[in-house]
């Protein structure tokens, strides 16, 4: 037991080092997916058949295929053009994959807003761009928070798949420690607790954000 405790204590700095990588990849992926998801949502709702068709196909593909396959394609599939670092492929894969889900959350929120608000904005002489910026998107963001936030939490958990393409994040560090120490379950449980803490903090941020929005209304 003492030996196990010593291994877990000694492994913690390495797991936390991996957790830092996990946090960085997750944060940049969240930022990218939130922005690109909005672009895809607006394209999906565009009157242009080309933009709408592209967005529809994009959403269908990235929601209909496994993230792991997408990561492997990005990491190994285009080496004849460019050989990416593991973190580059992981970042691109997470953004592309989850922007498809976030786009649908945005689209549902935008479509739930009454048409009368569009008409009122246009009657005041506001352009379509200003209507989106000042009237529609602020409301859509508040409406979409629960579903979008689920995607953000999923990004943190899905970042563990980056271990398959040699990204030194939390899961890969836990796997390497388990292999070197020949102790699997306790080390993986230790890593699982760190993931749990990260996702719980993110969910707590959602609660604070929703409370602040309610107070401001």
From TrEMBL:
Residue stretches in coiled coil? none
Give the record's GO biological process terms: amino acid transport
Principal location: membrane
Residue ranges spanning the membrane: these are 20-43, 64-83, 89-106, 182-202
Q: Which Gene3D superfamilies does this UniProt record tie to the protein?
A: MetI-like
Keyword check for Signal: no
Residues in ABC transmembrane type-1 domain copies:
19-206
Q: Could you tell me the superkingdom of the organism this chain comes from?
A: Bacteria
Q: Which GO terms describe its molecular function?
A: transmembrane transporter activity
Spell out the GO cellular component terms annotated for this protein, sorted alphabetically and separated by semicolons: ATP-binding cassette (ABC) transporter complex
Name the InterPro entries for this protein.
AA_ABC_transptr_permease_3TM, ArtM/GltK/GlnP/TcyL/YhdX-like, MetI-like, MetI-like_sf
| Membrane-topology descriptor | Multi-pass membrane protein
Q: Name one Pfam family in it.
A: BPD_transp_1
Localized where? Cell membrane
Q: Which UniProt keywords apply?
A: Amino-acid transport, Cell membrane, Membrane, Transmembrane, Transmembrane helix, Transport
NCBIfam families per UniProt = HEQRo_perm_3TM
Q: Which family does it belong to?
A: Belongs to the binding-protein-dependent transport system permease family.
Q: What is this protein called?
A: Amino acid ABC transporter permease
């Amino acid at each position: 037991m003492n030996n196990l405790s010593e291994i877990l204590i000694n492994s913690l700095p390495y797991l936390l080092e991996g957790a830092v990588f996990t946090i960085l990849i997750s944060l940049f992926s969240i930022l990218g997916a939130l922005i690109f998801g909005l672009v895809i949502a607006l394209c999906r709702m565009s009157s242009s058949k080309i933009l709408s068709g592209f967005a529809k196909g994009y959403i269908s593909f990235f929601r209909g295929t496994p993230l792991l396959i997408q990561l492997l394609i990005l990491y190994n599939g285009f080496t004849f053009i460019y050989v990416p670092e593991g973190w580059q492929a992981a970042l691109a894969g997470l953004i592309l994959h989850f922007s498809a889900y976030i786009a649908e959350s945005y689209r549902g929120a935008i479509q739930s807003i009454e048409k009368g608000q569009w008409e009122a904005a246009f009657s005041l002489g506001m352009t379509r761009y200003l209507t989106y910026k000042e009237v529609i998107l602020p409301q859509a963001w508040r409406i979409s928070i629960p579903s979008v936030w689920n995607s953000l939490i999923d990004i943190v958990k899905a970042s563990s798949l980056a271990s398959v393409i040699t990204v030194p994040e939390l899961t890969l560090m836990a796997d390497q420690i388990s292999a070197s120490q020949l102790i699997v379950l306790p080390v993986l449980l230790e890593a699982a607790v760190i993931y749990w803490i990260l996702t719980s903090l993110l969910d707590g941020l959602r609660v604070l954000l929703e409370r602040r929005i309610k107070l401001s209304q």
